[in-house]
Amino acid sequence: MVTAKSFVEEIIKIENNIHLLKIYSPKIASEITPGQFLNIKVSDNFFPLLRRPFSICDVDEKFIYIMFNILGDGTKILARKRTGEELDILGPLGHGFKTEGNFDTAIIVAGGLGAAPFPLFTKQMSSLGKNIYSFIGGKSESDIITYGMNNTFISTDDGSFGFKGTVIELLNRNIKILQENKIKIFSCGPTPMLRALKEFCVKNNFDCEVSTESAMACGFGICQGCPIESESKKDKYLLVCKDGPVFNIKDVLI
Amino acid sequence: MVTAKSFVEEIIKIENNIHLLKIYSPKIASEITPGQFLNIKVSDNFFPLLRRPFSICDVDEKFIYIMFNILGDGTKILARKRTGEELDILGPLGHGFKTEGNFDTAIIVAGGLGAAPFPLFTKQMSSLGKNIYSFIGGKSESDIITYGMNNTFISTDDGSFGFKGTVIELLNRNIKILQENKIKIFSCGPTPMLRALKEFCVKNNFDCEVSTESAMACGFGICQGCPIESESKKDKYLLVCKDGPVFNIKDVLI
Amino acid sequence: MNDIDLSVSIGPIKLRNPILLASGTVGYGNEMSEHIDLNKIGGIVTKSLSLKPRKGNPPQRIVETPAGMLNAIGLANVGVEVFLKEKIPFLKQFDVPLICNIAASSVDEYVECTKILTQEDFISAFEINVSCPNVKDGGLQFGNDISSVGKITAKVKAVTKKPVIIKLSPNVSYISEFAKVVKEEGGDAVSAINTLVGTSFNIITRRPKIYNVTGGLSGPAIKPVALAKVLEIKQKVEIPIIGIGGISNWQDVVEFMIAGSSAIQLGTINFVNPTAAIQIIDGLEQYCLHYGLKNISQLTGSYILK
Amino acid sequence: MNDIDLSVSIGPIKLRNPILLASGTVGYGNEMSEHIDLNKIGGIVTKSLSLKPRKGNPPQRIVETPAGMLNAIGLANVGVEVFLKEKIPFLKQFDVPLICNIAASSVDEYVECTKILTQEDFISAFEINVSCPNVKDGGLQFGNDISSVGKITAKVKAVTKKPVIIKLSPNVSYISEFAKVVKEEGGDAVSAINTLVGTSFNIITRRPKIYNVTGGLSGPAIKPVALAKVLEIKQKVEIPIIGIGGISNWQDVVEFMIAGSSAIQLGTINFVNPTAAIQIIDGLEQYCLHYGLKNISQLTGSYILK
Ligand SMILES: Cc1cc2nc3c(=O)[nH]c(=O)nc-3n(C[C@H](O)[C@H](O)[C@H](O)COP(=O)(O)OP(=O)(O)OC[C@H]3O[C@@H](n4cnc5c(N)ncnc54)[C@H](O)[C@@H]3O)c2cc1C
Ligand SMILES: Cc1cc2nc3c(=O)[nH]c(=O)nc-3n(C[C@H](O)[C@H](O)[C@H](O)COP(=O)(O)OP(=O)(O)OC[C@H]3O[C@@H](n4cnc5c(N)ncnc54)[C@H](O)[C@@H]3O)c2cc1C
Ligand SMILES: Cc1cc2nc3c(=O)[nH]c(=O)nc-3n(C[C@H](O)[C@H](O)[C@H](O)COP(=O)(O)O)c2cc1C
Ligand SMILES: Cc1cc2nc3c(=O)[nH]c(=O)nc-3n(C[C@H](O)[C@H](O)[C@H](O)COP(=O)(O)O)c2cc1C
Ligand code: FES
Ligand code: FES
After folding, report:
1. Residues of C in contact with D287 (CB under 8 A)
2. Is residue C60's pLDDT more than 70?
3. Is the Cα torsion angle C291, C292, C296, C300 positive or negative in sign?
4. Which of A92, C267, D79, D118 is close enough to C22 for a disulfide, judged by CB 3.0 to 4.6 Å?
5. Is D164 exposed, middle or buried (0-12, 13-18, 19+ CB in 10 A)?
6. pTM of the predicted model as reported, rounded to 2 decimal places
7. Are the beta carbons of D59 and A228 separated by less than 8 Å?
């Protein structure tokens, strides 16, 4: 992990008004595992005070990308950045997805902005020669992000795009295809989705890694602000920033 | 006084790295007396929390100008503004210089950034057909601002430009010329200069108006944060923002 | 939108909406009337009034801090006589509840001020400032002493039929103990909070930036502390609370009401955005509409803990 | 620059410079050692240790506020045994003074912890946390009660020869009264301040944002309050003070030393800028050079009032 002065290259808008921030950051770009995150100081003053965590969306030689939506003060400031502005980034942080292992097909399950880590993930899986199916869900069409993903299966709660229902229901409908391959599931998205996914994986005995979220102050293990309940050790919490953000779905209580 | 949404037109750099901010603000531009000020919210967030007061430097149809140097957080943010950005301005505030009256020659005495209100003042004096002499002082050449002023007499403490000594000493050297005309003095600058000027004016019985400064929270009379001691009424303070910022030098204790 | 009811009661005091302008941040109303229509707000709390005019502290009185400011105005005010003669007539043009804030350096002075002011019908209620951190006499000497606060409440109540609100100091271990004594002595409501004691030094001269050495911290920085004090009172004492401290938008107002406030006061934000009160009232109406709240007063103390 | 002396003493504790990292904001040092050279800082204060490991509060533990943050970690820590076995060995690689912060839910637990830890030579001093606002047992129950603070000081001093620092709560009327009892009972220094009690609500769910309902406010927002507390202690009690609260740059450190601090601790800023300590030490050196200060310790309490 490093604190690296980095520079805004450009802001790209993709589907549904989602922003991609392209950042020149050769030092960080050289050592990333998909699923890791950055902790970014979006301003050089006390507004906002804390850094903001973002998944690493993609890496392209000396550039890294993050994907975001304007939500509050921090993302509003990020969206206003201009080419050449300096950016104070801490990263890469945490543990990413285990891309190696005994599977031939990677199943992505992404809800809304949970799509963020998967462009880089997809690249790496492809270069490892694995098959990929990407299940993407959202409340309605305006939540669907397919950027950088392949073989997409789409669901929306309101049926405005793709299958009408949750992404886990869609997954369940395609369970046959899944069971025909040596699969491993990789997921990121809102808590209710992850909860349903866990049930689904336990029932079907699927191996699954999930990227989790938490409020964070430091992002590197010193504040204890980001606990997540462990399935095995009841006497202490795991830390999302340091032990995660990616966990095996069996290891954490969601 | 109005709260008017205004827009940054451009930032111009003049002598000694001084910034001129040109602002599109037709409503405010239409009702200004030289010596009045604006209270500007430089950011749309809590950093910094309070507005920043600036003298109105010049007016040009629908545009107003302020003059500043990068000093702290507020002026740093102002200096980064780009064309088209909205600016939240309260103004014009306070009482300006009394430009009419029984004098034929206006003597400006400005120290450092005390030059700020005088470009507009000079314009108005000229249009009223009055003579103007501008005495401008600073610690050294890099403090001298002559922008928008005529008939300049310059002094620096270190002699790096013009007369070596204080601007009041320079004024005293030219007292003959002054005494040959019906003069009135108009001044703005650091407290030690104003103090010396007061002594000079009392001794020579010159009429003089000074623009004063104070820490301010509101700028329009509700916080009582900007007291200045009155010469006549000892039981209460005057307010720089509302009773000033321009006072007759006889009326205030400097 | 007309079926949204923004009106609230603070004990016996009825207001058209919960937005009051806080003492010391609205003067006597005249300057603010250039910015907003006073007929639209819940009410005005005057700058603290004392029996005789007070000159206040020498400059520097104000310093900015991160997301806040320190002030040590020193209760500069015109005194009750001049207030009645010169300031009230202006306010009478408006249909706006007027709460007179009183500061004093002795129990007797509080009583005297109240006796004089209570004769003026236009005054709706009194807010007794027992918590000014910026004067040597009175102020926190009273505000941090439970028996003084009780005594002042009882004696002021004895000389007026108008509602009496006691403005509490946050610079104490347990603010609810003060609220409790106010209730016991017949006070109608409490205002929480006044400013937190703070200071700031010039690192070159090594002198305090504020002439008075310490000042009162206000603004968004103190909002979490103020909210916790309101919640503490709400949980421990049954007395109407006026929430104050760092409120700058309608979301903050909702938060203060959830935590237990019947109404709120806007302070420092008036300096930054003199039209804040009106924007906030609009925002509250939208919020009620959006969440199907018929009466905004339903919000008061509606927190769900666990 | 080599003739600038940044070293300071906190009573019997000698430090190479006044920059300590505050309890709860540096863990047990290992993560921070990736960011800064621990051999360069004044010292480390551990996360509060208790006799047995503590799991801490459920999430959400943290929420951002204007220029500050609330936390209710709930003293999650590994306990003294694990600390001695697993955490200290790492720290022993460094030449850095280690101050062990202890939290407990009874006077006996403070004593027990101290007895165990005092046997470890690497530990330079103890900081006794009597002021954690985020636990139900202990914490402010002690911190807001003068006689408890006195008792804890005396009993802890009785079982260790190492210096004992008491970390005081700011959530009291007069912090200097607590400093006074610490001095009387033989405490070597006080740390001021711990966090201010605050809260925050979600305006849609009406629930507190923090699971524990209230949390401790830290960060730049509280700096003026912390400075005033340091000044109050300095003016009233002769005891070394470690200043804490919202410090984020070298200018803040100078301000805290002028107000009376012998040394300071960096808290929240470590989260935002993990290299802050080093930048600050550089800044202090420049400041001393520029203003011709031979020993930075000359700054302590060097304020000029009026
Ligand atoms: C490990 C990790 C990876 C993340 N990756 C991404 C990413 O790739 N892209 C992205 O857009 N966001 C990501 N997030 C979430 C991101 O950090 C927040 O969206 C961001 O902090 C919002 O900052 P803000 O200042 O704009 O909003 P704030 O003003 O902080 O918050 C605005 C609103 O959003 C809510 N909010 C804040 N944080 C979260 C959160 N973590 N989850 C849900 N609601 C929240 C707040 O409660 C508030 O209501 C990630 C978070 C974590 C912990
Ligand atoms: C009526 C009035 C008119 C003014 N007109 C102008 C103008 O035309 N041009 C201009 O550049 N400035 C003017 N000023 C001063 C201006 O308001 C300050 O320079 C400005 O607030 C600095 O803001 P900042 O955030 O950059 O600095 P801050 O971070 O607020 O301060 C940086 C440093 O400057 C010091 N400082 C702040 N305000 C003042 C002040 N008023 N005088 C001296 N030192 C100060 C602070 O103590 C601090 O050390 C005027 C002030 C008043 C009251
Ligand atoms: C400049 C200033 C002057 C104040 N004067 C008074 C006063 O005279 N009487 C009083 O009771 N409170 C006074 N206050 C306190 C406010 O009424 C309010 O309690 C406090 O500022 C917290 O609210 P805020 O954070 O919204 O400003 C003053 C506050 C400020 C900032
Ligand atoms: C996340 C967090 C955890 C903390 N944990 C402890 C603790 O375990 N023990 C303690 O004495 N103080 C603890 N503190 C208080 C700090 O040591 C410090 O007193 C306080 O944060 C004020 O300093 P700051 O404003 O620089 O953060 C904690 C503070 C934070 C923000
Ligand atoms: S965010 Fe600080 S420990 Fe995880
Ligand atoms: S700045 Fe508020 S009264 Fe003058």
Report:
1. 203
2. yes
3. negative
4. C267
5. buried
6. 0.97
7. yes
- Name the token pair of A109: 């399950």
Is D31 in contact with A222 (Cβ distance < 8 A)? Answer: yes
SS (H, E, C) D139-185: CHHHHCCHHHHHHHHHHHHHCCCCCEEEECCCCCCCHHHHHHHHHHC
pLDDT score at B7: 96
Q: pLDDT value at position C138?
A: 61
How sure is the predictor about C143, in pLDDT bands with cuts at 50, 70 and 90?
A: confident
Q: Of A161, C67, A17, whose CA–CA distance to B49 is shortest?
A: C67
Q: Binning pLDDT at 50, 70 and 90, where does residue B38 land? A: very high
Secondary structure E strands in chain C: 8-10, 13-15, 19-21, 43-45, 62-65, 68-71, 98-102, 123-129, 164-167, 189-192, 196-199, 214-218, 241-244, 263-266
Tens of pLDDT, residues A12-65 = 999 888 999 999 999 999 999 999 999 999 999 999 999 999 999 999 999 999
Query: Which tokens go with A228?
Result: 């997540």
Q: What angle do CA C150, C152, C154 make, to 5 degrees?
A: 70
Question: pLDDT category, B178, cuts 50, 70, 90?
Answer: confident
Ligand 4 pocket mutation pick from D21, D23, D168, D271 by most atoms within 8 angstroms of CB: D23
Beta pairing, strands B37-41 & B52-55: antiparallel
For chain C, the domains span 8-299
* B33 DSSP assignment: -
What ipTM is given for this predicted complex?
0.96
pLDDT band at D136 (very low <50, low <70, confident <90, very high): low
Out of C210, C218, C241, C248, mutate this one to test ligand 3's pocket (max ligand atoms within 8 Å of CB): namely C218
Q: CA dist D45 to A51, B141, D252, Å? A: 23, 51, 19
- What's the mean per-residue pLDDT of chain A? 95
Q: Is B197 in the pocket of ligand 6 (CB under 6 A)?
A: no
Nearest-atom number in ligand 2 for the CA of B93 is 1
The CA distance from D99 to D164, in Å, is: 9
CA of A69 vs chain C CAs: smallest distance (Å): 22
Domains and CATH numbers, chain A: 2-93 (2.40.30.10), 105-211 (3.40.50.80)
Residue D100 appears among annotated catalytic residues: no
Query: What's the B75 CA to ligand 2 centre distance in angstroms?
Result: 8
* Whether the predicted pLDDT of B253 surpasses 60: yes
Measured CA angle at D32 (ends D30, A54), to 5 deg:
110
**pLDDT for A122 beyond 90:** yes
Is the CATH code 1.10.357.10 the one for domain D8-299?
A: no
Q: What is the pLDDT of residues A80-101, one digit of tens each?
A: 999 999 999 999 999 999 988 8
Contacts of D275 (CB under 8 A, 6+ apart): A3, D35, D36
How close is the Cα of B71 to the center of ligand 2, in Å?
7
Rounded to whole angstroms, the Cα distance separating B54 from A141 reads 49
Which chain B residues have a beta carbon less than 8 Å from that of C25?
222-223
In this prediction, residue A176 carries a pLDDT of: 87
Say yes or no: CB of residue B226 within 6 Å of ligand 6: yes
pLDDT digits 0-9 by tens, C257-279: 999 999 999 999 999 999 999 99
Cα-Cα-Cα-Cα torsion C5, C7, C8, C12, nearest 10 degrees, comes to: -130
CA C260 to CA C227: how far, in whole Å? Answer: 9
Task: For residue B225, report the distance from its CA to the centre of ligand 6, in Å.
Answer: 5
DSSP state of A56: -
Between chain A and chain B, the number of residue pairs with CB atoms below 8 A apart is: 10
Q: Give me the pLDDT at residue D133, please.
A: 72
In this prediction, residue D143 has a pLDDT band, given cuts at 50, 70 and 90, of confident
Outline where A86-166 has alpha helix (H). Answer: 118-127
